[in-house]
Write a structure and sequence with these properties.
The protein is of the alpha+beta class and 154 residues long. The chain is built from 6 helices and 6 strands; from the N terminus they run αααβααββββαβ.
Length: 154
């Protein structure tokens, strides 16, 4: 896949600092051309309050750029990932979810209804600290969601 520019070394750290920035600015700060499709997809990611799947991103992007093709959305996600702007999380047996790089939140996914919840950071920090102290294990949470049954489905 061709990139517009090599990803800056600090791209993941900067991607977490996008609050208040428009999509075109985020793209340019990462050395990426701000084409209309990329801006539409990036804005859909910035507007999302939680990690979202590619199909939902395609719907959101289409609200900003009529006629954007789903394949374009997938290619844009791949480019944004390559540049360190976004990353993904595997959420159960469903599709991967896209989120801003640097978002270290851990997700819990209901196996029955697909509901997604963020795990409170203090619980994650406690688990990470406990495993490091007691087992010498450096846990790197965030790439995979935790699975279970939500309160509504229990």
């Amino acid at each position: 896949m061709k990139r517009d520019a090599p990803p800056p070394a600090e791209a993941p750290a900067r991607a977490a600092q996008t609050a208040g920035l428009d999509a075109a600015t985020v793209l340019r700060r990462h050395g990426c051309r701000a084409t209309k499709p990329r801006v539409a997809v990036m804005q859909a990611i910035l507007d999302a309050e939680h990690p979202v799947g590619a199909a939902e991103l395609a719907e959101r992007a289409a609200r900003q750029l009529a006629g954007i093709h789903e394949a374009t959305v997938y290619r844009t996600i791949a480019t944004l990932s390559e540049l360190g702007i976004v990353t993904h999380v595997h959420a159960g047996h469903g599709p991967s979810l896209v989120k801003l790089a640097g978002d270290a939140s851990v997700l819990a996914v209901c196996r029955r209804c697909g509901r997604i919840e963020r795990v409170p950071q203090e619980l994650v920090d406690e688990l990470v600290g406990h495993l490091a102290e007691q087992r010498g294990f450096a846990l790197e949470p965030g790439h995979f969601a935790l699975e279970g049954i939500c309160a509504d489905c229990a």
